[in-house]
Amino acid sequence: MFEPRGKTMSNVRASLASEVPYHKGLGFTFLLIASLALGATTGANADGLVLWNKLGSASEILNSAYGPDLEFYSGGDVFSVSATPSYVPGVFGNALTIGSGAYRSTDRVRNVVVNDLDQILDPSQGTIEVWVHQVADPVGYSHNPHRIFDGSFGLGSGMALQTYEDKGLRFHLNFGGTTALLTNDISSLNGTWVHVAGVWDVDGIKGSNDKIRLYVNGQMVASGTSAEWGSTVGSRADIASGNDGNIAGKFYVDNLKLFDYARTDFSNRMQEDDGLAPPESGLIAYYCSASRRGVGTGM
Q: What is the pTM (predicted TM-score) of this model?
């Protein structure tokens, strides 16, 4: 089992064990020990969550809330340039966008990158979900595509969640096999925050014939029954990236999550930590009282 770099569930659902100093009153000594065991677990597959990054600042990007930390693109591709990261008000705190820069037509403007994606993403089943605010539809050779999570001219992850000129929102998987593609026109939602999710399961999503689905604001808007994509996940993906000289500020991205199972209920999407397992039961408090001299039965 892959142990993710960065934060594990034990960091997210922190266990708290504290010993409160002795309190003396009425001649008695009281000892309080409190332990909050809020679902502390370990391993990449805890609750199915494999990556959660809030994307609201440089610190949040470099320190994922759960799973591997992200990094800013630092070069290595002659066709690519590094974006200037910028932040705008998001659904939860701030969100990531591409700031102003000396970008040119056909430049591949890369913002944030996830590495070792093949170590956390399951090609047979999973979910990607994120909040997106699109300012304007993509325009060829001006700002196209808007790569929410990899995609056309991306880093070869084998999947894409993006908006593209004349094709709207696109979610596709290939992983080295035959591409499964779903689309939906979200132009009418430009200027608003939209929750989007791509879901897949080669054995059928929740027992259905659907192998791949696209959700917008919690509602399924497209589905497919073919699962001929492959099993080779690329090692990298770019996030909140795009192409061309006028890409700056054209879309924003907030609160990215990846899971290793097919989620279908997004009714709690307005909760920033939606998708984390509910707290496990556990000891929350222990009280011990002693007599004045530390012996006997107290009162």
A: 0.81
